Amino acid sequence: PKSHIYDLDLKRYRAAGLQFRHTDNINFWLKSLKAIKLPLTFHPETTDVYDKKNMPRVIYCIHALSSHLFKLGKTPQIQDLYGKVTFTDEEITVMSSELQKYGVQLPAFQKIGGLLATDLPGDTAALHAAVIAVNHAVDSEDQEALLKSLQNRSVRLNFILEEYLECYAKTLKTAKAAKVEAAMNRSLNDSYVADVYDDLLTQAEIQGHINSVNVSQKWNEVLDIAAQHDSDKMAAVLASPCLQLSDVERDNGSWYEEMLRKLVDSGKWIEYEESSEWRKVMQHIVSEGNTSAELYQKKTSAVKTVNQQLACGSVLGLLEALRSPCLEIDPELLTTFAAPLYWDEMVADRLDCGRDLTLTDIKTSVGVLSQIAHLTSAIDSGNHENIWTALMNLSALLRFEGLEPGLQTQYCSGLMACRSYKLLEDVDCTILNSADIQDCINLVNAKYEENNRVVSCLQKLNTAVRDRSP
């Protein structure tokens, strides 16, 4: 993990150069080479890296690591840049001097594939003969012979799928042609030393290309299945042994399909050219799909618990169920003060709709009921400004009828009186509910209208009396 990497931001290195603790990072790297089972032949020493004692050996290790990981289908194959990158005579002279200074020689990079094959346990001679047979079958373009040679146990190849034989043939032929061309370029150099694997694909390279074809073909199948909306087939393809994906759950096919659809809609998958990247994408789809499925199951269980409490639980039991992190309800909303209101209103809602409440129902109810409880808290504070603010916020949700800004003082006084009256009632929940609040608004409005009528009558009476005066 990154947390174990010393001087990750390179601040100490830039300030004071290499320090002994930097060897921790080198040792972690060497341990990772053992973990992925790179043959010990290619492992450098710590001092080869830290003291630059033998950097050619380090680079040799990186090349071998690339070939090994390509064989495992984890990375793209490292490119042969011979003839594509040129160095000046001065650069070559400087490098030669450095190599002589440390008494090291450049290793034969082209022999890595053969050495990787030699390190495999078992009959090495039979392995090399089987690898040569595969190369001959590639050259002959005889697909039947190619299939037979690939399935030969001596060649020790995995995940040979007959339905992809044509793709294997094309891919291996292209790869072999590129290798032959590179060997011809190197043969023009006076220092060139011929090797049997200069123009033959090694066992590691063959396996790497087989893996590459398998992944690319499975990726295309996954895209086709997503268009067909076949979740069972989606899970089956992702569970294919040749993909070597971990934690594929057959029951989560619909979630994998959803994750893939999001990826396709984003267009990001188009950026990937290497099959190793597609494999990472498919593993990401599986991992994210599993996470979504698990979260959905937890949410479903949490919703079920809430409904069980509403059916035969208690006020505090309901509050505890609502506080489940899986419901993703803001904990600050869920107060003990508001719990009786949650209970009364949500029990009634569940009975009215004749079914269990959904997650959306629950979250919507809690949001509104918490605002109602907040209004009651403001009423208890006796502060008219707080009461009016809470009432206006609640009205934005419930759209109370007849709410007149000019009657702010009357509404606040009315709500306080209503709250006092309800506290005297023999009820479990003394918090004002939405019906209580609307009734209070209606009562204030009616009283205001009645007062207006009385005032109007008095004004008319006064006018009549005044008109009759001498």
TrEMBL record:
<dbReference type="GO" id="GO:0051015">
    <property type="term" value="F:actin filament binding"/>
</dbReference>
<dbReference type="InterPro" id="IPR036872">
    <property type="entry name" value="CH_dom_sf"/>
</dbReference>
<dbReference type="GO" id="GO:1903479">
    <property type="term" value="P:mitotic actomyosin contractile ring assembly actin filament organization"/>
</dbReference>
<protein>
    <submittedName>
        <fullName>Uncharacterized protein</fullName>
    </submittedName>
</protein>
<dbReference type="GO" id="GO:0005516">
    <property type="term" value="F:calmodulin binding"/>
</dbReference>
<dbReference type="GO" id="GO:0005096">
    <property type="term" value="F:GTPase activator activity"/>
</dbReference>
<dbReference type="GO" id="GO:0005938">
    <property type="term" value="C:cell cortex"/>
</dbReference>
